[in-house]
Records
---
Amino acid sequence: MNRRALELFEKGFSCAQSVFAAYSPIFGVDEKTALRISCAFGGGMARLASVCGVISGAFMVIGLKGGGDDKERTYALAREFVDRFKAVNRSILCKDLLGYDISTVEGLQKARQDNAFKTVCTKYVEDSCRILEELLGTKMQRCGV
């Protein structure tokens, strides 16, 4: 499991940033740039409580791995990622996974008050990294460890 993703998440970076930035150096994207690219995807895309940021972060990694000329292979990998993630976590939506609607002021406040991002989301960062490594190979495991 990529420890760098958890380190970034513990430092306060979003789930999307943590997943993407942990693996991006393998593909020639430095961590600082990766953190900037993925910034708007946290909290279910700009805190809209939609698709979880770990999914977005993983999709960006999958795009770096297989994107470009082979769109169908990239889509197939992304769908396989989602299938595996849903098999473990039942959903890919932030609102469902977190248990709070952080698109509202009240929901965000309650999630922060209950420390939900640390107590709940860490598992999703871990699951995302594990699934990425299973799909994309052992080279992924060495990055950031």
---
Amino acid sequence: MVQIKRVYSEPSAQDGIRILVDRVWPRGCTKERARLDGWQKELAPSTALRKWFGHDPRKWHEFRSRYLDELAQPEPRKAIENLTKLARSQTLTLLFGASDLKHNQAVVLKELIDREERE
């Protein structure tokens, strides 16, 4: 099972494995508060894509398309395969820092992992 959650939200026992999927560390969040099991920077959008998107919901569909292209590269593909294996046996929580719960990279990653989990 894969779920997504803001890194600023209170950690819970139901989170299972907690993986941060941002390229940069979330502002004002300590490592103790985040309680991460891993930080997968290679799964975050490139700096150029992140800056272009700027969390503008009007750019969401184009961002999603470009981000999926980035995730198709060998290094992210391997990381996604590993997370998919984890999600088949335990709860996996993808953590993100953005305030928009519907338009962020964790949404795209969850969709991708969920799809691969079913295959």
---
Amino acid sequence: MADKTESPVTAGQEEEPLKRVNLYIATSVKGPGRRKGSCGYVLECPDRPPSAKNPMAEIMYIGETTAHGSLLSALREALGHVRSRCILTVYTDSPYIAAALSEYLPEWEKRDFMTKKEKPVADRENWKETAVLLNAAGCPVSVRLKEEHEWRNWLSWELEKRTSEGVKCDKD
């Protein structure tokens, strides 16, 4: 006989449906290797009306980094603003970030962020922090890889602008 557990919802009450949250992450860093660049995100709740906090966007010049490290920085920064349980959809152009979120992360957590070859996962500490943020928010995550969205052009333009400003400052 199956074990029945009590629902946290009292009789006559229904659970409130989870809100949807879309997270768009992007970077100006392209290709393998380390380069100077920027990362950014747009965090929006499509079921809520626009306001000063919806959508929330940030573009950050982060200096020399990898494309993966840059996207991970944007992801972590945005997740720090998710304050309640939600259904999270992450939009990215990175197959690595998409696979990490949808496949690798649970395995990395089980192995204390070590690869199958028992080497530390690249950006190990940042992935640990990302996992903590995702687990704390209790968000089911889905990933949209290379899918067109309304923020793509804006993010690209803002990233290039911030990167050129940052590189100029680095030279001063």
